[in-house]
Amino acid sequence: MNFDLSEEQHALRESLHSYLRNNYQFEQRQATVAGPEPFNRALWQECADLGWLALPFAPEQGGLGGSAIELMLLFEQCGRFLVVEPFLETVLMAGGVLKRLRGNDIDTRLNAIIAGRTQGALAHGEPQHCDERGSVRCTATYQGGAFALSGRKAVIYNAPTADFFIVSATAGAVAPGLARGDLCLFLVDSHQPGLALTPYQTVDGRCAAEVNLNGASVDSRLLLCSGDKAEQLIRSVFDDVALALAAESIGAMDVLVSETARYISHRKQFGQPIAEFQSLQHSLADMYMASELARSLVYAAAIKLRDGAQDASLFLAAAKAKADKSAVFVAHNAIQLHGGIATTDELKIGHYLKRITVSANLYGSRASRVRRFWQARCEPSKQSSSPELAA
Amino acid sequence: MNFDLSEEQHALRESLHSYLRNNYQFEQRQATVAGPEPFNRALWQECADLGWLALPFAPEQGGLGGSAIELMLLFEQCGRFLVVEPFLETVLMAGGVLKRLRGNDIDTRLNAIIAGRTQGALAHGEPQHCDERGSVRCTATYQGGAFALSGRKAVIYNAPTADFFIVSATAGAVAPGLARGDLCLFLVDSHQPGLALTPYQTVDGRCAAEVNLNGASVDSRLLLCSGDKAEQLIRSVFDDVALALAAESIGAMDVLVSETARYISHRKQFGQPIAEFQSLQHSLADMYMASELARSLVYAAAIKLRDGAQDASLFLAAAKAKADKSAVFVAHNAIQLHGGIATTDELKIGHYLKRITVSANLYGSRASRVRRFWQARCEPSKQSSSPELAA
Amino acid sequence: MNLELTPQDMAFRQEVQAFLTSALTPHMRRAGLRTTSIFSEFEASMSFQRALHDQGWAAPDWSLEYGGTDWSQMQKAIFHEECQRANSPATSSIGIQMLGPMIIRYGTTEQKRVLLPRILSTADVWCQGYSEPEAGSDLASLQMKAEKVGDDYVLNGSKIWTSLAHHANKMFCLVRTRKSEKPQAGISFLLVDLDLPGITVSPIVSLDGEVEQCQVFFEDVRVASSQRLGEENQGWEIAKYLLEHERGGYSYYVALDKQLSQIKTMASSACSEGDVPFIEDPVFTAELAELEIDKLALEYTEYRLKTRLEEQGKPGALSSMIKVTGTELGQALDEMAVRLRGQYLAPLQNHCLDPDFTGPCIGPVSGINVMNRYLNNRASTIYGGTAQIQRNIIARMVLAREGV
Amino acid sequence: MNLELTPQDMAFRQEVQAFLTSALTPHMRRAGLRTTSIFSEFEASMSFQRALHDQGWAAPDWSLEYGGTDWSQMQKAIFHEECQRANSPATSSIGIQMLGPMIIRYGTTEQKRVLLPRILSTADVWCQGYSEPEAGSDLASLQMKAEKVGDDYVLNGSKIWTSLAHHANKMFCLVRTRKSEKPQAGISFLLVDLDLPGITVSPIVSLDGEVEQCQVFFEDVRVASSQRLGEENQGWEIAKYLLEHERGGYSYYVALDKQLSQIKTMASSACSEGDVPFIEDPVFTAELAELEIDKLALEYTEYRLKTRLEEQGKPGALSSMIKVTGTELGQALDEMAVRLRGQYLAPLQNHCLDPDFTGPCIGPVSGINVMNRYLNNRASTIYGGTAQIQRNIIARMVLAREGV
Fold first, then answer.
1. String of b and e for B231-244 (b: at least 16 CB within 10 Å)?
2. DSSP labels, D148-170
3. Closest chain C C-alpha to B296 CA, distance in angstroms
4. How much is the ipTM here?
5. Which of C41, C210, C212, C246 does the annotation list as catalytic?
6. Partner of B339 at 20 to 30 A CA spacing, among A139, B376, C147, D350?
7. What is the DSSP letter of A182?
8. pLDDT in tens, D6-46
């Protein structure tokens, strides 16, 4: 057992960190957010050129074959720098669906993703969902070689810039090879008639949209997969999402702890640095502990996911639940210790809280993760009796 | 609206407090606990002579007609001084059942209680209970003018000294005026054949017993009441118990907050009173707040109970839940702030924790109280839409 | 001990209800519903304030002779309750709750005559200039200089966290008029016209993207010494009096009730696992019940304080306890509401919070203000004395009680 | 990054299991199961210690040449896990975990030769004399005087919270050998026979009614200066080294796992509302799941620390973090177990906790130790550096990391 990065992993972290330090200072990030484009397309192209968009894809798909560890390293840095570019949406979610399938068409799209030439979005969430396992109410009705898609997808990040969507829907009528109620995943072009967006900015500086499907007629060749396979695929993609968001949070917490330590050391009140006040010291200690404890569990989950361990999903649920709780706690305390200045748009502290809050609620509630953890824990067949050292 | 005590209530509190201050110093209390008798019978007789055992009973029963407010005042002082004498068990529980019934026999017993001449116990709790509303498994089987009682009653406080028991059981076979499954309350003499005790001391310095009923044959005239009336009676008695224990806790918290404030002011480490450490100050502030917030809710519950308000049970559940949580919090912090010395048998601090822990778990879990509160809250018919000022 | 209201109080409640039914416009009610901090949309606040003024209710805490009321503490609480239930916008607390009582206590006859009616009528809109960039919790260390030149003070420095300065025409502020051993001893209290030359009001954008706070810069601003409240160097005493008033004049439970009721509405439609609404999820309701019990405990503590105030006047450290508990409980409810909002906390749609807006918005309308309020209320444990400072005050009181 | 054990580790685990199967008597296992603090019943502990000694495993942390082992950190964790799973009694940590490493580091050849084997064999039972009535968190202010008279030290004063002093024949203690500006600079480290004239051991009854701690009084006790460890006035340095060792040598997650598994057993039979066992009550399981997630986070943090220790040696402030988290989580689990125990926490039945006892007890046997452990573990955030002191240490480290 060890928690050391390999030399290559160290180098990856180093290059991500140094690139973002040079190109993604908070002021630069805020300029992007305030600008007319949803994100910095030039920077996106540089990331493609640096190979980072290729990280999660297999070499035979033109990727670098990075594992869950490399994903974690990527998103930890995204979390540190509050990166708004759609690594999660295009690469991990839309790309994550495609990379788990086979076909020439798919390889072409993956190549375009890797090259930074196309944007995607996974249109799965619906208004009533409390997590990604909620029942899908969008319907796909088969009619003569095509499916008519109808329904509403909620808060689809990156939708306004997406060139294509992966849309989930349930089979509403009998179609070749499908049972009524089967989950189906479709590849839908952004220009598809019957697909309409209500776009908006988000509190964490990105863009998203409500996606309305009004009988959008999609050729049956664009049905990517269905049934159990589709269910499993969605779960796998959202396991990656959970890891990525948890990794973002540990990056964010690191910054919040450091910034707070530095601020309270320099800020003086009552004739002394406020770091001299024991109650502030103890808050800082609690922030640090929350951050480190979450980090450990995220490491464990990443390793389990890489290794395809049977209890990987259990660990991901635990890691995300812990990271969410810790990150909210750390952000709240960072604001409290900074005082008024951290309640302004000008300081980056509050922007971490916004991202952390979105991360904790966008793709499933914390309560549902805890419940999922418990259910997995109670299925002894699916895992070893204890996830500790037991051989 | 006001929260002031009347002159008589002030006087009652004063006399209770001054009597206990003179007769119930911690060393005296510990001598009683260590002694051969379960409690101080001479002191009990004095309390009878002072009229305190008569408090909750109606004047026509020979009592003083004290309301829930007077009960609260009595038990607040019991809580302050960690009184082990069976005010709760004999007066409020056994006496509390009897006072809600009518009959010459009953008046005789009430007189004996008020005079301090008899001890009672309410044998209701059973091993599987999570609160007093749990289903009763003790059975009462009717056979020719008598009931055979069988089953087990768990952790019955004061049982070893009780002269009589109120025993709850469910009607097991058809008997005059009873349906199968009806809850019945019986008056059972402590010498009753078929009744056997396993007595023990308790962690909070009192005595209790497991009560085993092995077909104890009880004359049907000793069936006190049954059915809905019995259910209602049990609930009323345990409402009183909840108030009494919550009042104990606010008395206990008051002492813990004061003692801790005094200790940290005098204890020196690092060349200064440890009260100079801000983290200790903040713990003390939190203890004080917990204590005062609980006190307010206990006051409100006592007034509601006295007034027979429709939402009195709701308030009692809330007050007990809040008092339990607050008292545990306060006791934990009192120990933490005292340090090692409070983990010894010699200091009174830890004895408050023991009593508080028993109080929070003996007659129902905190979780069940919170649930009960919520259920009552969701029944709009039974209460005004909001328990606030609404007229 | 009793919880009953007097027949007078019940009649009073009906009177307030009747007034609100007629006085509140839909615009004001929308402003009340869409409030995301302790302030509501400015114009709606002012309109409501004027309606109250017409009724003679603009300043419940002032004495009758200055245009206030003779309401009991309980009537004030009833008034506050009914306003919240009817979704009134928040009234302008700065002039009425904060400055007014100080003028009444420390002002000259002339100051009272001129200034108090203008506060009531909204002719003057005041902001408070206390904090400075280097003087937050340690307010006494404030540095803004007021040099006496002839009969004027010449002001240099800046004030920060001045709420609503961008709407105000006046500021009351603490300035340094003397260097002294004890910093508290050299502070004076000035009443400043914001249109004087040399004053720059610079808005501060909050986390929700809106402006409620400002920084105000002073460069050689000349203020006539007649604009001083109280004696020179008496400022700290006045501010202390005011701080106590600020803490005493509010009922937290009323706002918490409103949050709870919003949460219940949201929880009836938002789905927990398996398409079951949260309000039927036992894990959720157990948590909500705990918070509701905490709210009740605070509510009755506030009543206890109010009935005590009736007799004794000064709230003392108890008001610190109520502030800490009220704000921290409010934050806990904000967090719960955010969780119920789920994915819909993400869309940025500040325009929907404008009381003039009546179009569609993204996600259920019942929780439209939830995310912004959550962000803004993080400041509630910072302003008006941080939670840390309040706990220091409480601890000092508990220690002092034991004579130590 | 990987979580896998090496084949050697897996073989080692089997070896430990096999050893425990044969070495543990039913008496020892009962002592393990009925443990209510960090100590198990004394005789059972000693027996187990001797069995370990026979196997050569008595002191995993010592180096091989002194009778220790060459186990990796991971093997030590495996050993600790398997001992707990097999319900071994706790071993005597004071001599082995605390004193041994100090003798190895600071002892003379003679001290090592004589003392170390006697620790391993249980011939000597040590207790620790650090704290004094007036020197708790502020250990450096200790006052127990050791005056040099000829070749002896003459000791006067008292030590408190000396665990197991009533069973021990030896005490290592810190004494004041010099008054100095910096109190740390005048402290020496002595090894004292408890049967010396002038020593009185006075047991302290804990909240659970049992004795684990003592106060030890010294009146003109003469100790030969050869019984000093290290140099005169080097005591503080030695103690600091030891404190770090004390914090590093323990795996909290192992004990927490045992608490969790006991809770699950209790929750399968104890009833929540409506005769449903707690383990099927969603409110209960949500809370339990949170604690289990917290335990996992601590567990992997301990692994991270262990694998780092392998390379770097000193645990530093991370061990403070693990101590705070481990003890506070342990207390949370204690509280949960107490709630599950319900009414049955009330009966006082310490006799059932004796490993010799095999009769009936009141209430389910699975939770028989729960109330006593709850009471005793309130001290876990006090001894060995209070939770407050640990947080001070952590904060200092975080601030220092930022170069401030």
1. bebbebbbbbbbbb
2. EETTEEEEEEEEE--TTTTT-SE
3. 5
4. 0.95
5. C246
6. D350
7. -
8. 999 999 999 999 999 999 999 999 999 999 999 999 999 99
